[in-house]
Structures are given as C-alpha cells and as structure tokens.
Amino acid sequence: MKTLKKLSAIAMLAIVIILTSCSGANAEVKVLAPGEKLEITKPERLMIIDFNATWCGPCVAFGPIFEEAAKKYGNKVDFYSVDVDQHQQLAQQLNIRSIPAILFVHPDGTRDWSIGLMSAEEFDQRIQDALAGGE
Q: Domain segments of the chain: what residues?
C-alpha cells in the first residue's frame, strides 16, 4: 500500500511538472507545484494569479475562463494557478479567505483583487483595464 501511495504521489508530481514545463511562451497557465515559491513583489509585466481549490465549484467553473484568457493575453501577462490547499502558507500570508480569489500584480508592485466567480466578459474587461493602467 505504501508503494502504491508513493507511485501515486510521484505520478501526480510528474503531471504537475509536465503542466508547469509546458507553460510560458505558448501562453499557458503556470501551475504552482507543491513547495514551489512564487515571487509576487514587482513582476516585469502584469501577473494574474488564480487562487483556487479542487473542491471549490466556482473555482472549477472559472478554470476554463482563466485558461482562455491566458491564451489570449499570454504575450502580455503571466498567468499562475495556485491551489490554496497545497499552498496554505501563501494563502495565509495574502489573507485569502474566499476563493476563487484573483490577484492582479502590476509591474509597479500595486495589487488588485477580485473575489468570486467572474464571467469571461468580466474577466476580460478586468485584464484590459489592468493592462491599460499598468503600461
């Protein structure tokens, strides 16, 4: 049983590594792996972080919207997905109490939050507004 658990953990880690390594220039969402750190002080360009959980219905519903936005704006924005169950310390540091919580981090270090489920249109407008104000 222990071996099976180890193999499952290794398989999950491999999936996370594959997802993370596939991100970047092709405008994918970068999934923060367990134990991985994320620097959010002053990014080079707009950074949008989706704090979520697998058990959260609105988070699951927002996932495809977030991924589509990453495809559309990936050449201007860095998109990250953070599971609050895997990154409890980061969630506590940022005082996240409700999810989905979307954090916009501008190159000058300012931060804006959006809490709760957004439609694709609302999210698109928030990104456009952030880009207009941050460039």
A: 2-134
Q: Model's pTM, two decimal places?
A: 0.76
Consecutive H or E run containing 20: helix 2-21
Which residue out of 29, 31, 46, 59 is catalytically annotated? Answer: 59
Nearest to 129 by CA among 95, 97, 106: 106
Query: Is-catalytic flag, 22?
Result: no
pLDDT digits 0-9 by tens, 104-120? 999 999 999 999 999 99
- Over residues 48-98, the pLDDT tens digits come to 999 999 999 999 999 999 999 999 999 999 999 999 999 999 999 999 999
With tokens 């880009």, the residue in question is 131
What's the alpha-carbon Rg for the chain, to the nearest Å?
Answer: 15
State whether residue 30 is helix, strand or coil: strand
Indicate which residue of 32, 46, 56, 105 is catalytic.
56
Place of tokens 């109490």: 97
CATH architecture of 2-134: 3-Layer(aba) Sandwich (3.40)
